[in-house]
Amino acid sequence: MPDENTELAQKSHWERWTGEDGPFYRACAVLPFDSVKEPTDETATEQPAIQFTTGITRLLLRHLPTYLGVTMVLYFGINFTRAIVTGELNFALPEATLRGGVVLIGGIGVGFVWAYLVYRLLASVIRGSGMHRSMMFFATAGPLIAGTAYAVYHALTTTGSNGDPAMTVQAGYFLFILIAGHLIYDGLALKTENLFMRLKDTSIVSRPAYDDFYSELTSTLGDTLTVGTISIPRSVAFALAVALGPLLLPVIVSPWAGWGEIAYLVYAIMTLFVIAMLYDVFLLVYKFTELLQRDILTYQPFHPDDHGGFRDFGRFATRINVILAVAGSYVAYRFYAEGLLNLPEGGIEPTLLGLTWVVLYIAPIAAYAALAVFWLYHSFWRLHEKMEEGRQRRIEELQRQSESDDQQPQRDFSDLEVAAPAWESLRDAPTWPIKRQGLFGILMMDAVPVVITFV
């Protein structure tokens, strides 16, 4: 019977270190039902020393539903109000009367009381179940999906290239953040941190080589930059250095237009957060490719996960690929919802206007295609090569051992049937970190954003 250490070595570590479970859309916290800090009580497992992201970026990522909800209310609320005031949208308001004012105030008061009573009744039931997280995710995703669909419909039905994008065009951007943010927090933060921390207890890594790599990892991911008495995450410093100037330029050079600038600033802060997350994701991906380059991982042909012990790496690579596909879907959506309407009247010509259009709408698709190919090679294919190399090395070891045994005097057996050499059983050992059908699905998913853009 396997001992405790053996069972620990065979266990999958692609799970949240907080002890919580459920689908990815239940990963992020929702105030006021969840604690501001990540759970570290007796129900949670040991908190990893490694952190994918730290400081303000991690706080916003954990509370993405709340942060995104506030941003959307401010952004869309201001823009719709401005459209009504300027006459772009016709919205007939009822005539203001004393009776109407009293009814309105009373209705608002009753509404607040009703909402508070519902909260008190449901809080004890859904707290800890994760139901409130699912409700928040789909309640946010539903309107965003509707706004995204309308923006595409508006772009496809508008004749000519002089039309303006729909007012809901940014719904696709916020939908991308909602889905990708939950995927990142669930996989790259809670699960990947647990995976890298627990790898040292498995049989697929060589120690102390992995201990050295893990020490480098903890000092690199989530690193902070200190300026005087102020300490900020390097991802935030990167976002401020790269994008703060370009984002503030329209506000600086344009005349003050009231609430419009406030809505834009809210949008710009969200964009800075996205860029900071991209920095952290890039750094994690870089360290993962470095792990594959070093002589640290050890292939185990008969590992219980049926993937040579590399199944959790396949899951990590799949999660990165899904996030990449979500980003590709957004740039394809942006091409249809904005690019078609902003296409120059004379078509794409070698002018500054034509070059700008290509950079804004074609270059992101090309960048996505390049990143997808890069990741397919440096994750799934590199893992496949690592597994194939490990299998071949093990076969050669058993062949040498078999040749050595053949030189010994043979025993007499009454049974004339001789078993096949031990290395023969390794010919069918797995050499991919995921199932072949899953790999085909990933290839199809990666191709969709590119194909639909140029159809």
The value of Rg in angstroms is: 28 Å
Strand order of the largest sheet: 1-2
Helix content, binned percent: 55-70%
| Strand elements, count | 2
* Terminal-residue CA separation: 58 Å
What is the count of structural domains? Answer: 2
What is the number of helical segments per DSSP (H or I, 4+ residues)?
12
| Topology pattern, helix = H, strand = E | HHHHHHHEEHHHHH
Overall mean pLDDT score?
82
Low-confidence stretches: 409-418
Task: Estimate the global geometry from the Cα principal axes.
Answer: globular
Instruction: Please summarize the sheet with the most strands.
Output: 2 strands, antiparallel
| Class computed from helices, strands and strand pairing | mainly alpha
Q: What proportion of the residues form beta strands (DSSP E)? A: under 5%
